[in-house]
């Protein structure tokens, strides 16, 4: 049964959480990502959070975006901003043993993924003392 969530795709939680690394549907295979809806209320041993350009640190606060068509748009509605902030809170509070936060480097040739969308967030998170594994 598929959950009634706004996810773009569906993961089967039985396979995603319980199967081993030989099954491409398993979280251990790193093929499919679970959304905050898929893991809400769960504690996981290890979590990898992919930080996208929807929530960007600006140096003085956060900017909230959504992707429409071929470009990023900014959320003006405070309820939408709270929802996005809460989605990241859920993702960042699931790990029991450890967590990796992946902030993509961006791509100069792709205006939807320019490095400027990610750089200040990366600097902010690493400035908090989060260890940088690779750049």
Keywords, please?
135 residues, 2 domains, 3-stranded antiparallel β-sheet, globular, disordered N terminus
Quick summary:
The strands form 2 sheets. The chain has a 3-stranded antiparallel β-sheet, sandwiched between helices. A two-stranded parallel ribbon has the order 1-5. The chain has 2 domains: 9-42, no CATH class; 45-135, no CATH class. The chain is α+β, with helices and mostly antiparallel strands and 135 residues long.
3D structure, described in words:
- The structure is a single chain.
- With 135 residues, the protein is α+β, with helices and mostly antiparallel strands.
- The protein folds into 2 domains: 34 residues, no CATH class; 91 residues, no CATH class.
- Helices cover 27% and strands 21% of the residues.
- Strands 2-3-4 form a 3-stranded antiparallel β-sheet, sandwiched between helices. A two-stranded parallel sheet has the order 1-5.
- A hairpin with a 4-residue loop joins strand 2 and strand 3.
- The radius of gyration is 16 Å and the shape is globular.
- The N terminus is likely disordered.
């Amino acid at each position: 049964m598929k959950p009634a969530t706004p996810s773009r795709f569906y993961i089967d939680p039985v396979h995603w959480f319980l199967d081993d690394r030989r099954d491409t549907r398993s979280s251990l295979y790193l093929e499919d990502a679970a959304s905050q809806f898929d893991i809400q209320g769960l504690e996981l041993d290890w979590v990898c959070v992919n930080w996208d350009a929807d929530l960007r640190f600006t140096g003085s606060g956060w900017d909230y975006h959504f992707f429409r068509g071929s470009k990023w748009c900014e959320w003006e509605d405070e309820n939408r901003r709270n929802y996005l902030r809460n989605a990241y809170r859920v993702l960042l509070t699931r790990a029991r043993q450890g967590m990796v936060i992946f902030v993509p480097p961006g791509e100069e040739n792709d205006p939807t993924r320019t490095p400027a969308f990610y750089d200040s967030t990366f600097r902010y998170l690493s400035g908090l003392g989060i260890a940088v594994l690779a750049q």
